[in-house]
Design a protein that fits this description.
Elements (H helix, E strand, L loop, with lengths): L1 H6 L2 H23 L4 E11 L6 H9 L8 H10 L3 H11 L1 H5 L16 H10 L1 E5 L6 E7 L2 H59 L4 H32 L5 H26 L1 E2 L2 E2 H37 L3 E7 L12 H30 L1
Antiparallel strand pairs: 1-3, 1-6, 2-3, 4-5
Helix pairs in contact: 2-12, 5-8, 8-11, 9-10
Length: 370
């Protein structure tokens, strides 16, 4: 231990913890660190179906309204920017491995040919910075590249792929709705046909076109007979007051009154207790009205299903979402990374800190040994 402490002289500690880190930092940031350019863009998602979206959400919030309607879309989009699927699409379009593996001799920020897909996905995520505004739902996207033109092209390709993605999942939902609407139309059509067939079977079985109309006609006839009977009774009382009971006029009117009463009783019996193929007319009227109500309900349900299917068909064919580009991908003129002076000063500060700690430890140990 004593020999080791004798070796740890201030000169050696300064060489290891101060001079060597400073030299390595200077060599790396002066000759090996590759410039990284950043393309900046700001985007949002707008729902063309409901008029919502990030921009509409901003106006709504400024006016005291609710949160943006496409807030969930921005969350989907933010996660898609970090997905394997997007990385593979960009690789096939822009050859990202080839670009990021030719970053000069920079050993820290270049991609390597032996990287797996998962490793390169992590590398890709580190080259993309995503920030989402919780208030407006807008997404700020900063994409790095070793060339300014490539950084801009990469950011533009990400926007194009993300718009395709957000429309594809919206259309997938719309297609599912359309398939469900089509099944509902088919089901409602079969139900309507079945109810119509029941109405037709009822009419053929009882030989009645409309029991309700027939019952109404019978009721009207009964009312007419009642009125006629009342008139005849009044006339009979008037004649009896001035004529004998056995007079011709009185006997004739009595005969007419009896005939009217018989006819009225017959019509009442037919309306309330008469049989039509073994069933009473009131019961048939109730059954027929129930069938008509079911047919009307089935027809309305079929119309609603047709309207829903047409709406779903329109949604499945038109553009439901659109990517609102607030600020197009910029073409950087100067490298944003690495921050050479800042990083070199950081290395020196850490080196001084470690040198001070180790120097104090060595001095403390020596004092305790003495």
């Amino acid at each position: 231990m004593k020999k080791l402490l004798n070796l740890l002289t201030p000169r050696l500690l300064g060489l290891v913890f101060l001079v060597l880190p400073a030299a390595l930092g200077t060599v790396y940031y002066g000759g090996f660190a590759a410039d990284r350019y950043v393309s900046h863009t700001v985007i949002g998602v707008k729902d063309t179906a409901g008029g919502g979206g990030s921009m509409g959400g901003v106006a709504s919030l400024l006016l005291g309204g609710s949160a943006p309607t496409s807030y969930s879309d921005t969350l989907y989009l933010e996660n898609y920017f970090r997905s394997m699927d997007l990385m593979l699409r960009l690789e096939s379009r822009l050859k990202m491995r080839e670009h990021f593996s030719h970053a000069g001799a920079d050993p820290l920020y270049r991609a390597w040919s032996w990287m797996s897909q998962e490793a390169f996905l992590d590398y890709f995520r580190n080259r993309v910075e995503i920030a989402r505004d919780e208030f407006s739902g807008l997404i700020t996207l900063d994409v790095q590249g070793f060339e300014p033109e490539y950084a801009q092209r990469l950011a533009q390709a990400m926007l194009e792929e993300s718009e395709d993605f957000i429309n594809e999942y919206s259309h997938r939902i719309a297609r599912d709705k359309m398939r469900f609407a089509e099944s509902e139309v088919e089901r409602s059509r079969k139900n309507l046909d079945a109810v119509k067939q029941e109405v037709l079977t009822f009419q053929n079985r009882y030989k009645l076109l409309d029991p309700t109309s027939q019952a109404a006609a019978a009721s009207s006839l009964t009312a007419g007979l009642q009125a006629k009977l009342a008139q005849q009774e009044a006339e009979l009382k008037a004649l009896q007051a001035i004529m004998q009971e056995d007079s011709f006029q009185v006997r004739t009117l009595k005969s007419q009154l009896a005939a009217t009463q018989a006819q009225l009783e017959a019509e009442r019996q037919r309306s309330t207790g008469g049989n039509v193929n073994g069933s009473q007319l009131p019961a048939l009227t109730i059954q027929y009205q129930e069938l008509l109500a079911r047919a009307g309900f089935a027809e309305e349900a079929h119309k609603a299903a047709l309207i829903a299917m047409e709406s779903a068909r329109v949604e499945a064919t038109r553009k439901l979402k659109t990517l609102v580009v607030i600020e197009p991908p910029t073409r950087p003129q100067e490298a944003q990374y690495p921050r050479r002076l800042y990083n070199l000063l950081t290395v020196l500060a850490i080196a001084v800190m470690f040198y001070t700690i180790v120097r104090l430890m060595v001095v403390t140990i020596r004092e305790h040994q003495d």
